[in-house]
Design brief:
about 200 residues, 5-stranded parallel sheet, 6 helices, alpha/beta, single chain
Length: about 200
């Protein structure tokens, strides 16, 4: 009976095994890229070497971004690039992600851009304007510690799916969920047009 009681008290006092990361999920920083792309893996090795041996914060930032998921490596358009690089045309724009075309931009300035990938249309327009499209390994030879560079990133939350994501409301701020897009099958007379959306049926918001 005594041994049973002793075992019970042992279980009562058991702690939490925090050796493998603790209770919080998703707070750990990636130590390597999950991508199976060989080019990204080699780039990560190259820039982690530069970050370690040259003690470069620029290289460390590129390593961190190379290890990110694809959603966090959002592309950037040439129109946004030209806006961000206004007055900094002599510097190199660095994007750990893709560069896309924007047909609304009529004149492309002469820019030197280093990125993971370029769309065909974006590359053609940059080169035609007298600019240069660099890969990140070419950038490592030209400016390993990030001298005369501007590190940019695309907008992560401009995806269509983000518009549907909800927010927690509270008594102090009850309107945080107001701008969230509803998931409706179709936009028409028969969909979400009854109580709350018509004056003749209850009320209208």
């Amino acid at each position: 009976v005594a041994t049973k009681y002793f075992c019970f008290t042992c279980f009562e006092r058991m702690g939490i095994d925090i050796k493998s990361g603790g209770r919080r999920v998703g707070h750990n920083v990636r130590k390597a890229p999950v991508s199976k792309n060989v080019y990204i893996k080699l780039l990560e090795k190259l820039y982690s070497f530069i970050a370690r041996r040259a003690e470069s914060k620029f290289a460390a930032t590129i390593v961190k971004r190379l290890r990110m998921s694809r959603i966090n490596k959002a592309p950037i358009s040439i129109s946004r690039l030209s806006r961000y690089m206004k007055g900094k045309e002599e510097k190199i724009a660095v994007i750990v992600g893709g560069v896309t075309n924007d047909s609304r931009l009529l004149e492309v300035p002469q820019l030197t851009i280093a990125a993971l990938r370029f769309t065909e249309a974006a590359r053609a327009r940059i080169v035609k304007a007298g600019g240069e499209c660099l890969t990140l390994d070419q950038l490592a030879l030209r400016s390993p510690k990030g001298a005369k560079t501007v590190l940019l990133r695309g907008s992560k939350n401009s995806r269509e799916s983000v518009k549907f994501f909800g927010h927690r409301t509270s008594p102090s701020n009850p309107h945080t969920h107001d701008g969230v897009k509803p998931r409706v099958r179709s936009k028409g007379r028969k969909f979400e047009k009854a109580r709350g959306r018509r004056r003749s049926v209850g009320f209208k918001v």
